[in-house]
Queue: 2 jobs
Job 1
Amino acid sequence: MVKTTQQWHLASKPTDLPELSGPNQTFKLVTTDLPALEANQVLVKTLYLSNDPAQRGWISPDADPERLYVPPVKVGTLMHARGLAEVVDSKSERFKKGDTVLGSVGWSEYAVLNAKDVQPAPDLPGGLSKTHYLGALGLTGITAYYGIKVVAETQASDTVVVSGAAGATGMMVVQIAKKMLGCKRVIGIAGTDAKCKWVESLGADDDLVKATEGFVNVYFDNVGGEILDLMFTRMARYSRIAACGAISAYNANSDRRAGLKNWFEIISMRIQVRGFIVLDYLSKMSEVLDEFRAALQEGKLKIDEQSEHVVKASFEEIPKTWLMLFDGSNTGKLVTSL
Amino acid sequence: MVKTTQQWHLASKPTDLPELSGPNQTFKLVTTDLPALEANQVLVKTLYLSNDPAQRGWISPDADPERLYVPPVKVGTLMHARGLAEVVDSKSERFKKGDTVLGSVGWSEYAVLNAKDVQPAPDLPGGLSKTHYLGALGLTGITAYYGIKVVAETQASDTVVVSGAAGATGMMVVQIAKKMLGCKRVIGIAGTDAKCKWVESLGADDDLVKATEGFVNVYFDNVGGEILDLMFTRMARYSRIAACGAISAYNANSDRRAGLKNWFEIISMRIQVRGFIVLDYLSKMSEVLDEFRAALQEGKLKIDEQSEHVVKASFEEIPKTWLMLFDGSNTGKLVTSL
């Protein structure tokens, strides 16, 4: 019977890029007792961890709990993370030993979770890895769908630009816009030539300046900062910006942030900006996943091993692997395989 | 018969604050021939000039004609401005000598205008000066109404913040929100204590931090820059920003602009931002003016000599008077009386 577990706890809140060692080390590895399993709970072993830019926000020193969409991580407690896990013991009728499940396991080898907070992860068709439940067929895929279809109200006639287009959300936005919504022009912005090539293979057109000559109707923003500021000047009259993320700013305290200077374009071009968080759209999740499944069968959505970037890591390497999100080295959904 | 007129022409496009003299003088005074009056035209003498922050945008060097909502002013041509004028000669059936009219007279003593581009300016009830047609009962009043009611969809239950609250647009936003829409909390931001006192007399509550303790549902932004950046952090979940102006940035080229750093609040609080220009709403102008007249009678709107700041100026002093817009010295609509 498992009684203890290794965990990564938050050691100190980083103002800039999280540090893996030294006096300001962001996380620390601890071994801690597991609580006793109670009725309607399951004990799970973490198999895969989802790596998400949003996690950076949960450990910021200036995070005001009143203004966060999930509670921040407290110093000295377990780092939050979503993961795919195997049930090793169960006091719930819904799950049995050996089941694969999805839940907020945190950076923990083992976790005791309430069964009501855990979702089943049944086999996927076509031999797809269940890790896609952490990405394309999970919250990131839903984020892409919600942002491009509902928030930006994208129509087939719209010219669409997506930043972070080779990332977990961006790659889905490109495909949903191009193949599911039928947009004629979908332009992806990505950090390297190799990424751009891949994004093009998903359906995006190349060359930002040329492609935006007639200006842009919808911009799906994953990055914020300088690219967003540039995009303000490329938006068409009455265009829409779906503000999804600002990864360029997550590791810079406000003194070091670039700052947006082209705000006036919002006024003169009558641009509409809408910030959104997928948590507001979870009630539609199963509906959207049905739509994704149909699109997969019709060839309007491609999800394969290239849609995720699975990094085999030891438990000690969890923070280091997560930091790959911020150095541009991952393509598709970054997943840690333990 | 008037054959020539004095005019202020654009001499060079300013990158920063327009200059009244020196090698980079922004405007120059010229005497020029008037065109002969043709059928369906009127010759008018300018009585009052409207001073508008938007005029600054029309003379910026980086103004891309494709992205401006009115054509930019070309170097060596008449500075654009709206004004109240007297018809001195007419070849139009619609206007006769002695009529007071509204039109795009520019910074010109006399102007020949097409009658179709000129609006009549009949007497106002209650002995109100016709100069209010340039402000509260003109485009600035309509701007306020369009932004707070239509763009921001303000409801009585909303807490509203207005920046530039002692300015031509802001003073109307405060009154429309508080008295016409019945908002319980309307907070005005203005540049001096005296202005704040006056804004309070229009119905706004005081003390920004205390008043925004429960956060803000609607922010009507006239100023941009640092105040906008601060307001991002004071917005409630699912709140709206009506982006009307950015006077703090108009005289700073992009290198010197402060830059917005709190963009992420738009995402985490799901804020909606909508830029708008009153020109999109002109079809509703007479309807809104009817509503204003009714509100005046019911005491839900106060328009008096304090609603405008009329500066008696010689023709030579037109640019200097206009520049008062940018040093914070005017309260209410800034009007130049020639």
Note: Chain A has a mean pLDDT of 93.
Job 2
Amino acid sequence: MAETIRHDKTARQLRLLSDALDSGRLGPVKRLVNTLSPAEIGNLLESLPPGKRSVVWGLVDPEDDGEVLVHVGEDVRESLIADMDPDELVAAVEDLDIDDLADLVEDLPDTVIDEVLKSMDRENRERLEQVLSYDEDSAGRLMNPDVVTVRTDTTVDVVLRYLRLRGELPEHTDHLYVISRRHQYLGRIALQSLLTRDASTPINQLIDDEQPAIGVDVSADEVARMFSDHDWISAPVVDDNNVLLGRITIDDVVDIIRYQAEHQALGAAGLDEEEDMFSPVLRATRRRLIWLSINLGTAFLAASVVDQFAATIDQLVALAVLMPIVAGMGGNAGTQVLALMVRGLALGQVSASNVRTLLWKEARVALLNGLALGLVLALIVLVWFRSPGLSLVIAAALTLNLVSAATAGVLVPITLKRLGFDPALASSIFLTTVTDVMGFFTFLGLATLVLLR
Amino acid sequence: MAETIRHDKTARQLRLLSDALDSGRLGPVKRLVNTLSPAEIGNLLESLPPGKRSVVWGLVDPEDDGEVLVHVGEDVRESLIADMDPDELVAAVEDLDIDDLADLVEDLPDTVIDEVLKSMDRENRERLEQVLSYDEDSAGRLMNPDVVTVRTDTTVDVVLRYLRLRGELPEHTDHLYVISRRHQYLGRIALQSLLTRDASTPINQLIDDEQPAIGVDVSADEVARMFSDHDWISAPVVDDNNVLLGRITIDDVVDIIRYQAEHQALGAAGLDEEEDMFSPVLRATRRRLIWLSINLGTAFLAASVVDQFAATIDQLVALAVLMPIVAGMGGNAGTQVLALMVRGLALGQVSASNVRTLLWKEARVALLNGLALGLVLALIVLVWFRSPGLSLVIAAALTLNLVSAATAGVLVPITLKRLGFDPALASSIFLTTVTDVMGFFTFLGLATLVLLR
């Protein structure tokens, strides 16, 4: 009888494994590891520090090695490949599907690539070269060339006999593709309809031509959007002449969607989604330094604004105490607008046609929030510093900064996108530069004008 | 012949529609809208401000109304439902699948729910009640009770005849489920194997018992993880006695994964993933005020630290100029650590067994970055303010703050998770509180000790 999953299996298995590893008894570790799927093994390896990672990697069934390499991030993959000798590597990758092999090939040593190519027959070698010729983030790289095709001029009976003769179908086959004599895609036949229709039914009565084909150059992001908007399980891929090249299945699309989410979450902090949690200290330091150096530059920009008002602060030290509040609140409010905009841009919901409406809405929200929070802030400052002028200045500065923050929150990501940059990655640096500079400038500037006459 | 998609269709169609809308000619708008899938129409409606949204909603084919409502966020759904009269609503939702109807039911007016329940037959009404009895984020709410089952004691031939008699199968059926007399799940049969095996083959030779069943109470997050780790297309759901209740298909899992990503991205900015980009100004203001008020509280905490050192700043105004740099850089460095931790926690890769190793690694990375950036910062400050003491103080304060930031970046999310909170949502507020307070305290504290003797 089949197994039943009752609780959160992943977390429990990782805990069991980690206990077994700590106890140093490798027998139970090996048994546990080899009950996992390659993706789960990959997840486990990513959660282990380098020493333990090597030990567990040595215990994985060699048959799974290739699939595990496909399922880990590039950094971790590199560390695993470094642990293998060339023969092991060749054995691990030579039986992979063409699309998986294409993903790995750039991370393999040249000698291993040569060996793998030599071990392939000519047809597969040509297929691999073809897949590698497409852009990395395109439908061409996602597709698997292994498809089952039929012609229009036949019957269910003949197709059933052909399938019995052929034996096993490629994984996740839910449709057969109908092609013309010149191998052009015409439509598809659901396996379901072969099963539920009479054997004498002509195939051309069963063709579903509602399923569009995807051009081989369409971007992976668009492929993911189409699959999720239409609940597709698989879709055919064609070249410029509508010739059928392969098919994309939903399991690869799920990987793209997960990857996009990680790319956004880590990218916003200036990190690469391939980053290994346990990457060597020197490498991690070097990578983060770049991002932090850019931020140091923008911090100096803000500091130089404060420096312009050094004389004012010298006269009224309360300004130094309160100025981070105005700048920081702008950053928080702007981040909210930014989050909505980045989602809207990713979903294709924000464009030139609605930016003005969005800007107007966000400006009004910021104005109202500025007035409400400004009132609270003014009252607290009045009690604290007993200066009505200072209260007035901070409330006005906060309101102005929230409106600038909203404006930057709308305009920064859309401008970056128009300039060809990924708005999810660079927007926050620009936004906080605006909110810091404007926060310090409005607060200290207004204070200079109003309080030091 | 089937259509071919060559370019990024979504964006282009939205642009065309928006142009047609602006021109005010509703005929072309209607034609364009009704070439879209319900999910695409939902996406379009979300991208329109309230006025245009009402116009386009009125043009959607009433047959698609129900599916469109399923595909939009709760805020937008509410605005669409407000535009419909009860009869339209009943007609829109009464033909939905049980799982979709269960999603909608809470947003419908009571009179409409009564009407819909009345229009259903008893079996469907009981099914709906059953689905609604499961937790909102559980396998039970994701499953569709519509499954095709067979018994073990039969042959391919008999099953094929049964399927022909039955006619159409439920959407995305790739397997039939094999059950016992007491309706317990035993395994599954691929449609593929029915097609490729001989008609006389006994069914029990074709059973695949490798596919585990999912317990009805397993969390939606775990369901998503299992589907993506194992490349499943569908999986059976069973109750505590292993009785088959329904099946979950990958298209619903794709929706969960997208939802999780939005939840994380918007949640980190204190927003709800159901937020309408064009929600009314007053409502948006009210919602954001909560988040901003919490941030105002933490900003006052940081300001009160600065206030302790007012006398020091009074003597050396350069401290006010430089203090935001130390605090801000801590925030940036901590955010990087936080992003890695939140991903690790979401993937189940971070647990008690490796926190210490992670903390030690991040502390060393922070120390090295602190020394490197501290050196740069010290040199700039030396040239700017010509004070070796100040240079030394800011470099030391930066290093200390980066190490605190790394510590907070590791410990804050894991502590929140252990306390039962979602680390993706609240971590950043706690983190920036630590980095602001520590940044101001170490810099101004060291300056008081070293420079004002």
Note: The first strand of chain B starts at residue 4 and ends at 5.
